[in-house]
Amino acid sequence: MRFIISGQNVAITPAFRAMIERKVGKLSRILPKIIEAKIMLSAEKYRRTAELTLLAKRKIFRSEETAGNLAAAVDLAVDTLTRQVRQVKDRIRERKPRVSPRRTGPRPEAAERGAPRAGEPASAPLVVSRRLAPKPMSVEEAAMQLGLRRDQFLVFTNAATEAVNVLYRRKNGGLGLIEPVA
């Protein structure tokens, strides 16, 4: 993050500059995509004003606070910016749910088929169905095929028994095989 600190009727000491950079720098923990921070400090008769502007990747945050001394004005402005940044992060988090890396959602074409039509209740559970012709292969070949895919299971015809089998991933990382009883 790049800092641009300027003052109007204010002498900015190196210690005060470091304090401002430390306080504003804490915002990068909440929103790491902050590119630039512009801080404008001004002093008038009995009031001190701090104007802070953060330039993030797709957003601009701004606050202006006035207090009796400059440190208090900076604290108030940083608090206002913290609130603004948290609101944006909360909106993003609510809008975009996290997806675990092991589980993936339904494929887009399957979701379109199972999606409710206009006028239907949206609370109905989504059931995705796929029709497939199980390929004849050995268990070893099926294990290799499942290793190449991100699917959790593979339906195939066992070449040795000519029965439909299911090979699936277990939670411990191994594979399981479901065979029908003759």
Explain how this protein is built:
This protein is an alpha/beta fold and 182 residues long. The protein folds into 2 domains: 2-95, Double Stranded RNA Binding Domain (2-Layer Sandwich), CATH 3.30.160; 131-182, Sigma 54 modulation/S30EA ribosomal protein, C-terminal domain (SHC Adaptor Protein), CATH 3.30.505. Helices cover 32% and strands 29% of the residues. It has 5 helices and 8 strands. It has helices spanning 14-25, 27-30, 70-95, 108-114, 139-148; strands at residues 2-8, 34-43, 48-56, 60-67, 136-137, 153-158, 164-169, 175-178. It has a 4-stranded mixed β-sheet with strand order 1-2-3-4, covered by helices on one side. Strands 5-6-7-8 form a 4-stranded mixed β-sheet. β6 and β7 (164-169) form a beta hairpin. The radius of gyration is 30 Å and the shape is rod-shaped. The N and C termini lie far apart (68 Å).
